[in-house]
Write a structure and sequence with these properties.
52% helix; 14 strands; six-stranded mixed sheet; six-stranded antiparallel sheet; 15 helices; Alpha-Beta Plaits; alpha+beta; 516 residues
Length: 516
């Protein structure tokens, strides 16, 4: 069988995460799905039910499919087109809900679980398939939720009894809840102990059935009854298992002997050689094939060719799940069970021995781990001391760097102060030079004025000399005196200016010849 590609975007794969959390997790959820047939021949999920270990409903949704549905299999699923009209939940929504529910290592339980997971495109590592943990002749048939109904009366625990009445109110949840009951019963009894499914009560229920498998959906239950002799009372019970456009059903009789006799009286071949059909093919009596092999478990079966009222000939198989020898031996002690118990006891002893050996190994491993822990602690102590020393070295280096930075800062500050002082001196020297230049300019102006005035006085004197008369001489004499006084006054001013210039030159440290 070709394995599905789980690397596509449509598939969801759960991650286990932390191993310690997974080991401690004991959460369990049971799932049951209803399928319909699409026009491309594939099955599609249209209803998903999930319950927890307390039988509380965690998911109960109709699923909207994007494919055209050709067969709702209403006689098996109980679902019609009307049920899906208001469905808004998609397959992606179911995958998201399951992923959230199964995180931290929860266990997913189902009967024929692989069939459900492929249809849901969902991959989960921690699973329990009840079709595998309950192995008996009656359960070697294709997986079906009806199997749990036959087993549960023998394995029913007190924890399951209180929900029987509740489950009856929601029949579409029975598959998930019965699957959870089976696992809880297995846990209660222990996986080392066999739940005896060959006891008389279970055999009476199971051996009174014949399995009709790969029946075309065109064959009705009334037409199925026609393959059995009319003197047998038979009731057709449908199972939830389907395969494309084929379904499975049980023909239930009043007791195992009636079921065995009805199988023997069905005219046809049981896989033991060719057999001719002595009767003509009519709607009331089928035509049988020639040689038919036994099923995969070696049980006798017959291939039925049934002509329907529509004129179409349908083919399917009828399987006798128990041989007549088993029916005769069902009232006797089961030697196989005793042998199985002995083998289980021996297996338990081996497991105990293996457990003791594992404990010893675990103790040695624990001791080695403790030594590693001590070595680790010692290494951590050394590392911490080394780290502390490194911290001290780093602190010292930081202090040295800070001191260097402070010294550089002080040196730079001194240089800045010296620059400022030099600038200030330069500014004061410049100002003094300006003042000296102004003084020189004033002296030069004063000298030039004095010369002009002297020239003017000389000219005036010469003019006066040329004048005659005593009055003129007196006037001229007074004018000369006045001019002399003015000259003396100017000389005093020039002398004062020269003193100021000398003082300024002396204060600024200029050489004496600068003021000359």
């Amino acid at each position: 069988m070709k394995q599905p590609n789980r690397c596509t975007k449509e598939w969801v794969v759960t991650k286990l995460g932390n191993i310690s959390k997974i080991v401690e997790s004991n959460a369990m959820y049971a799932i049951d799905c209803e399928m319909v047939l699409c026009e491309d021949g594939a099955d599609a999920v249209v209803q998903v039910c999930v319950v927890d270990h307390n039988f509380e409903v965690r998911i109960d949704e109709f699923v909207k499919t994007n494919k055209a549905i050709t067969d709702y299999r209403t006689h098996v699923t109980g679902i019609s087109a009307k049920d899906l009209d208001g469905a808004t939940c998609t397959l992606a929504d179911i995958q998201k809900s399951l992923k959230k529910l199964l995180k931290h290592g929860a266990i997913l339980i189902g009967h024929g679980l692989n069939y459900y997971l492929e249809a849901l495109k969902f991959d989960h590592a921690r699973v329990i398939d009840t079709s595998l943990i309950f192995e008996s002749q009656s359960l070697d048939a294709p997986a079906t939720r009806n199997s749990s109904e036959a087993i549960l009366p023998q394995v029913q625990s007190s924890s399951c009894n209180d929900v029987r009445e509740k489950c009856a109110q929601h029949k579409y949840l029975d598959g998930a809840r019965n699957t959870m009951k089976l696992v809880l019963a297995k846990i209660e009894r222990g996986f080392g102990d066999v739940i005896d499914l060959s006891c008389r009560d279970v055999l009476k229920v199971e051996m009174a059935k014949l399995l009709l498998h790969t029946v075309p959906v065109e064959v009705s239950m009334e037409e199925l009854k026609k393959i059995f002799p009319k003197d047998f009372e038979v009731d057709i019970k449908l199972t939830s298992r389907t395969k494309g456009r084929k379904y499975f059903a049980y023909a239930v009789f009043k007791d195992p002997q009636a079921a065995h006799q009805a199988f023997e009286r069905i005219e046809g071949n049981k896989g033991e050689g060719p057999q001719a059909d002595k009767h003509a093919s009519t709607p009331e009596r089928p035509r049988f094939a020639k040689k038919v092999p036994k099923d995969s478990s070696g049980r006798p079966q017959k291939l039925i060719l049934l002509q329907l009222s529509t004129g179409v000939t349908a083919s399917f198989f009828v399987c006798n799940m128990f041989s007549y020898n088993i029916i005769d031996q069902s009232v006797q002690p089961n030697k196989r069970s005793l042998q199985m118990e002995e083998s289980i006891t021996e297996a338990k002893k081996q497991k105990v021995d293996m457990g003791e050996e594992a404990i010893n190994k675990s103790e040695s491993i624990t001791e080695a781990k403790e030594q590693k822990v001590d070595m680790g602690k010692e290494a951590i102590g050394k590392l911490e001391s080394t780290t502390e020393a490194k911290k001290q070295v780093d602190i010292g280096k930081e202090a040295i760097n800070k001191s260097k930075r402070r010294k550089r800062s002080r040196k730079k500050q001194k240089e800045v102060d010296m620059c400022k002082e030099a600038v200030n001196k330069s500014e004061s020297t410049t100002e003094a030079k300006k003042q000296v230049d102004m003084g020189k300019e004033a002296v030069n102006k004063s000298k030039s004025r004095k010369k002009q005035e002297v020239v003017m006085c000389k000219e005036a004197i010469n003019k006066l000399k040329t004048r005659t008369g005593s009055n003129q001489r007196n006037y001229h004499q007074e004018e000369i005196e006045r001019l002399k006084r003015q000259l003396c006054q100017k000389d005093d001013e020039i002398h004062s200016l020269q003193k100021i210039v000398s003082v300024l030159i002396g204060n600024q440290g200029f050489p004496p010849h600068v003021g000359q």
